[in-house]
Specification:
Layout lengths: L7 H17 L1 H14 L2 H21 L3 H4 L2 H31 L5 H29 L2 H18 L1 H9 L21 H7 L1 H22 L1 H8 L4 H29 L1 H26 L2 H27 L4 H34 L4 H18 L6 H12 L1
Helix pairs in contact: 1-5, 2-3, 2-5, 2-15, 3-5, 3-7, 3-8, 5-6, 5-15, 6-7, 6-12, 6-14, 10-14, 10-15, 10-16, 11-12, 12-13, 12-14, 13-14, 13-16
């Protein structure tokens, strides 16, 4: 479509490279827009992100083919993808910081967990749109113009999102509620250096989160190429797991408000760690669609516990003046460095070892290191901090 068609393989690889290009600009967007959110405000940053995302989606939808405008087609497609990655990088930091700051102190975990839950919901809706287009359009029409419809459907939500965000109250200048991060007048660069230990530990945990996410996304390819199972079994496992992750993430966020972030983070990650080997061993031994669906759905459910509680613990542990840029940059670096490479690494490991258990070993290593990092992180939930302070004064 956007690339020369002399070689199907070459065209496919260039298309995949265009997709991957968006990961490269996520950290840059997180840093630039995150700093804008920390200096000017969450609301203007979120509005800017939505405008940029809308432009990127419309740009992809209306870009002519290579046959029509030649080399300009791939250039425009890559630029649109770079813009999309840039805006998504800025979106996560400003959005998550806003959710934490607008929530009552005792409901931060629940409120911030909506970030993870709605991302899963978006994935499901995107999958449904793709399934619907595939069902109603013949393959030739889908290749010719059907894929553009998906981008336009996404762009149609932009006006509503802009209206909604324009009417949101600003939180940057509001007095800080109970927080684990003390208010300070230090420069933002000095603050970032002061919180370097927390940021390094958080980067380790986020790396594990995204390795887990992308291993579970890899299940469709894994089912076909390695286990020689029908692709439909992989799609079902991925879809059910994503759907189940929505209520579990919200439930975990709610529990973290009541019992603390640290217990949910530690136990959630440990549960996942203990599940990985037996699940993969069962799936590999039986090589049945039922085992794949039940096993991978269970892993998705286990992974959702940490994802429902960890983001709140991270954003409330950072001072407001570096909250959006700090969280967003760490998140985007993790996605770009670990999430974007996981499927390549797993495929390579299966190839060089010849073992279908290779994804399990890679995943277990990442989650084990994450467990150590989580053990080194302090509690941040206001309810638990207040309780600990009260006990200290007795």
């Amino acid at each position: 479509m956007f690339f020369p068609t002399q070689s199907a393989y070459g065209s496919l690889m260039l298309s995949l490279a265009t997709f991957e290009a968006g990961f490269a600009t996520r950290p840059l967007g997180a840093f630039v827009i995150g700093n804008y959110a920390d200096r000017v405000g969450r609301r203007p940053a979120m509005i800017l992100c939505f405008v940029l995302i809308g432009c990127a989606m419309v740009g992809m939808a209306v870009t002519p083919t290579y046959a029509t405008i030649g080399i300009a087609a791939p250039i425009l497609a890559v630029l649109a993808r770079l813009l999309q990655g840039f805006s998504l990088g800025g979106e996560i930091g400003s959005n998550t910081a806003y959710l934490m700051e607008v929530a009552p102190a005792q409901k931060r975990g629940f409120t911030v967990s909506l970030q993870s839950a709605t991302q899963c919901l978006a994935v499901l809706i995107g999958g449904l749109v793709g399934a619907l287009l595939t069902a109603v359009l013949p393959p030739a029409a889908l290749d010719a113009y059907g894929w553009r419809i998906a981008f336009l459907v996404g762009a149609a939500a932009v006006p509503f999102g802009l209206w909604l965000r324009t009417n949101l109250p600003e939180t940057l200048d509001e007095p800080e509620q109970i927080t684990a991060a003390p208010v300070t007048s230090a420069s933002r660069l000095r603050l970032a250096y002061t919180y370097r230990r927390l940021m390094i530990l958080a980067l380790v945990v986020m790396a594990s989160i995204f390795i887990t996410n992308y291993v579970l996304v890899y299940v469709v390819t894994y089912a076909q190429a390695t286990l020689h199972l029908p692709a439909r079994a992989g799609f079902i496992a991925e879809s059910i797991g994503t759907a189940l992750a929505i209520p579990i993430a919200i439930w975990s966020g709610w529990l973290s408000d009541k019992y603390g972030r640290r217990p949910l983070n530690l136990w959630g990650n440990l549960i996942l760690l203990l599940m990985i080997y037996p699940v993969f061993a069962w799936v590999v031994a039986t090589r049945s669609p039922l085992a794949l669906i039940v096993g991978m759905t269970s892993l998705n459910a286990g992974a959702s516990i940490l994802q429902g509680s960890f983001y709140a613990s991270m954003v409330e542990s950072l001072p407001k003046s570096i909250r959006s840029s700090g969280f967003g940059t760490l998140y985007s670096l993790s996605v770009a460095t670990f999430g974007g490479t996981t499927q390549l690494v797993v495929t390579w490991l299966i190839h060089i070892t010849g073992s279908p258990m290779a994804p399990a070993w890679y995943l277990m290593g990442a989650v084990f290191v994450s467990q150590i990092a989580l053990m080194m992180m302090a509690e941040s939930a206001p309810a638990r901090i207040a309780t600990e302070l009260a006990l200290d004064t007795v």
